[in-house]
Amino acid sequence: MSAGISRKELKRDELVDATLDAGRWIERHGRTAGVAALLVVVAGLGFLGWRWNAERREARAAESLAEGERLYRKAEETGFPKADVERALESFGRAVELGGTGPAGRLAGYWHGAALHRLGREAEAAAELERIYASPATPPTLAGSAKALAAEALAAAGQREPAAALLEELAAADPEIFPADQALAALASLREQSGDTAGARQARQSILDRFPGRSTAADARERLGS
């Protein structure tokens, strides 16, 4: 360029050159650029589709969970007839399958375990409940309830030491994820059933020492004769 070209003209020429360079790049790589743009659009649509499908599954899981709870409560009112509990179990199972690790799926897993326990299928109940309380995604209070019910299922299956270990964990949890005094009361009963009177007394004394104002303390005091 000649020395007489102004700064304004120079800037304009640079802009033209840049535009031409971009145009040439698009001519050479137009197919690649088009594919990349298409992939971005497809990925966006795919994400929206995935999100819509996930929300739909969660909604269906919540519906199955609600149906299972309704059937379970109805069964509870009539003494838990096996056929009624099995119908509730089926609804809970559907909710678990649809909900996966989502909120409805986790809560359905707890009730699925409860129904299995009610049907006397203790090993299955304990395994299902362990899946719930062992997951870091499970809210603490739900994990605590699942662990307490798993202890009950294990005890019913004759596995008293694993059941006692779960109850001890609940009693020691800080902050509480299940009423610690209730865990200690259940532990005392379990120790008593095993013939471990010293362990039962220790658990009841812990209730008096730690929770003197709770309802379980009155029973513990009476049983200890204090």
Supply the helix-strand structural class: mainly alpha
Number of beta-strand segments: 0
- Rough shape? elongated
Helix content: over 70%
Q: How are helices and strands ordered from N to C? A: HHHHHHHHH
Describe the structure.
By secondary structure, the chain is mostly helical. It has a domain at 56-143. 82% of the residues lie in helices and 0% in strands. It has 9 helices and no strands. The radius of gyration is 32 Å and the shape is elongated. The model is unreliable at 1-16 and 18-23 (pLDDT under 50).
Question: Could you provide a short overview of the structure?
Answer:
The protein has helices spanning 7-77, 82-99, 103-118, 122-133, 140-156, 160-172, 180-193, 197-210, 215-224. With 226 residues, the chain is mainly alpha-helical.
Give the topology.
Elements: H1 7-77, H2 82-99, H3 103-118, H4 122-133, H5 140-156, H6 160-172, H7 180-193, H8 197-210, H9 215-224
Helix pairs in contact: 1-2, 1-3, 2-3, 3-4, 3-5, 4-5, 5-6, 6-7, 7-8, 8-9
Keywords:
226 residues; mainly alpha; 9 helices; 0% strand
